[in-house]
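Input/output pair, single chain:
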Amino acid sequence: MPAQQDQINAATSREASNSLLAVLSDGRWRPSAWVCFIALATLRSVHQARINPRPLLESTLIHVVMGALSNRRGLVWVAVSWIMAVTHLGMIGGRRSIGIPNALTLIRGNLPALEGRLGRSLPVISLATDFADGKIARATGTVTSFGTQADFLADTAFWTWFIVRHEPSRAVKALTFAAWSAPVVAIAAASVTKGRMLDVPRSAWLRPAAAMEVFIGIRAILRLFPRRGH
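Output:
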C-alpha cells in the first residue's frame, strides 16, 4: 500500500482518480475495497493540501468568511463546501493561487448559507458570479480542472437548493433535477462501475443546465417584482 500511495500522490489529478476508482473496481466494491479507497483518497488529499499551502489557505479563508456571515444551519453547508474544496486541490494544476475565478465559484457555492443576509438577491448574485468567473478565467488564461468541476458543482448545489426551497412549479423542479442532479449521479455511478473517471458531456450548442439556470434565474427575478392587480 505505501508504494501504491506514493504512485497516487505523484500522479496527476486524472491519473490519481482513475487509480483510486480502479481500487474499487478491482476489489469488486466490497467493504474492504471501499476502506482502501477512502484511506488512499484521504492520504492523497492531505498530500495535495501540503504541497498547495497558499490555495489551502485561500480556500480556508473564503469559507471562514462565509461561515462568519451565515447562520448556524448554514455552517454545515459551509463545512461541506470547505471539505470538498481542500480535498481537490490537486486539480489546481500546480498553480500558486486558487485565483479570482475559483474564489468567485467557491463563494457562489456557499450562497445558500447566506440566505438570511442576502435574501431574494441570491439568484442575481449567482448568475452574476457564474458569468464573471468563466469570463475572467478565460481572459486571464487561468482555467483549471478545479475551476471546471467546482463551477459545475456550485451551480448544481445552488440551483438544486434554490428550486427545492423557492420554486413553486413542480415541472420546473423536475426539469432542474434532470438537468443537473441526474447527470451528476449517472456519471458518478458510471465512473465507479467502470473504474475510471468519466466527464459530464458538454456541448457548445446544447447546454440544458445553463438554459435552466437562466430560466430559473429570470423567474426568480420576476418574482421580485410581482404584478399588481388592476
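The mean pLDDT is 83. The chain has one domain: 52-223.
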